[in-house]
Amino acid sequence: MKDDEHWMRRALRLAEKGRGRTSPNPMVGAVLVKEGRVVGEGFHAKAGEPHAEIIAMRKAGEEARGATLYINLEPCSHYGKTPPCAPALIQAGIKRAVVGMEDPNPMVKGKGLGMLRASGLDVEVGILEEACQKLNEAFCKYIQTKEPFVILKIAATIDGKIATKQGESKWITGEASRRLVHRMRHEADGVLVGIGTILNDDPLLTARVRGGNDPYRIVLDSHLRIPEKAKIIDQNPERTILATTEQAPKEKIERLEKRGVRILIFDSNQGKVNLKSLLSRLGEMGMMSLLVEGGSEVNGSFLDERLIDKIFLFLSPKLLGGSALGIFGGRGSENLKEAISLNLVKIKKVGDDILLVGYPKES
Asked: pTM for this one?
């Protein structure tokens, strides 16, 4: 059991190397061990490229026969962009498979494991299962609901203010926190803001990470007020998505679409874009994770609709006081019984700031 956990941790470290590059696939690492030594290992680097266990078997060659496979997610049993892995493992003569967790996809869950067991392999499931689930939490939600995993990022002062009463917010948090946010953008499929952020700051919303991926930029803009010279339209407009309503002017929609911008039109919910419908549409587009970097009203809307899966709260050791803008607008909770509790999983210093990471508890 101790050895199994040791090798599974190695598989998880390998899987991490694919972070930000595998969507809409999960991050997977695989290690082949024979007589206490690694004979092959690999990780899934990008959607459409070979799966982790296939890479490990190629590296092991004939040494794969009689080896034990350690892998954080159940080997696939179906054809996707690549052939299924379970039959290849059987053909290679793998003796034992130690699997972190079952595939959460209801269509395939347990079928790969069943195939391995039916061929006589010794299969064990659930080693470091919680760590395996956390690693692929976005994939687990997406594959079961077809909606992206929603991460709310907040940068605030220690008294819970995200901007001065004049709207100034650059920069509340320090450089180390901002670097981490760029890493988060690289890892997300999309980053979402409200039209207020575009009008006030005119951001690019790119991931300034060497060799990193820029996410789709999604703007909530119910009346399509975005300036046609906004940076996210001038630069890589094909990576820009404007979520609007039937109240948007048709001529402006046509002009923006001609420039490559994607316009999504929704029925308005009290004058605003219906967020639940938006998440469904983004899921249909294959978007597995969404980073929300909104202002007070956008944050409040996601909170009111109970659409937040995870929160990253960066707190700066500053005080603004007064009528400066708070973290959440919206309806809010009427009483403490309705307050949303957080399961805090991490509290750490990032430069001079404090980062709190948590998950809203289900009521």
From this structure: 0.91
